[in-house]
């Protein structure tokens, strides 16, 4: 049974998403919501993320909506202090809002960025603290999620860790379902 899940995926620029008004974000959120509800129905209690731009931040928004109807908790663990300091203001504010709505939040390192080891250890920590991961991306072209994926695959071999995916095909299905619904209205 999966009690704790971590979710990650490609960054907005890897998905060719340049702003929060991009319509594809809603489809991504619907795909995340759909997967999360099935995990919650099977006993999921916590989702832990770092709050990274893109998939993780959108996941936080979805969980905050789901918390109104479902017993799900959100933990946000930025890899270091001032994690979002170089982000555009809108995203910094969004992360701060999500941290305030989270059930628990704490930086993994209680200091500003010191080096790449903080990102490496972040991945290890997320895998160690979760039973499985959900990755939004393409396993054949993983982009920046490759580093996390490599560690997750090792965890699968070592201690029955599980990797779940939201693939481009899953997103295409969501888009088609939405278009079908709209054609009936």
From TrEMBL:
Q: Which domain of life is it from?
A: Bacteria
Q: Pfam families per the record? A: YpsA
Query: What Gene3D superfamilies does the record tag this protein with?
Result: 3.40.50.450
SUPFAM superfamilies hit by this protein = MCP/YpsA-like (SSF102405)
The record's annotation in InterPro entries points to: YspA
Protein name, please? SLOG family protein
């Amino acid at each position: 049974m999966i009690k704790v899940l971590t979710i990650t995926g490609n960054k907005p620029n890897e998905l060719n998403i340049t702003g929060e008004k991009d319509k594809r974000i809603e489809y991504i959120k619907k795909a995340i919501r759909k997967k999360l509800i099935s995990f919650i129905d099977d006993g999921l209690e916590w989702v832990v993320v770092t709050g990274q731009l893109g998939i993780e931040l959108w996941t936080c928004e979805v969980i905050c909506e789901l918390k109104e109807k479902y017993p799900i908790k959100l933990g946000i663990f930025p890899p270091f202090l001032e994690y979002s300091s170089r982000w555009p203001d809108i995203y910094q504010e969004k992360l701060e809002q999500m941290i305030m709505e989270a059930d628990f939040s704490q930086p993994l390192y209680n200091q500003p960025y010191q080096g790449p080891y903080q990102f490496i250890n972040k991945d290890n920590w997320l895998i160690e603290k979760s039973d499985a991961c959900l990755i939004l991306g393409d396993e054949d072209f993983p982009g920046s999620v490759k580093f996390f994926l490599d560690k997750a695959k090792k965890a699968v071999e070592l201690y029955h860790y599980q990797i779940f995916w939201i693939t481009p095909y899953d997103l295409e299905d969501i888009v088609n379902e939405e278009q079908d619904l709209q054609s009936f209205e």
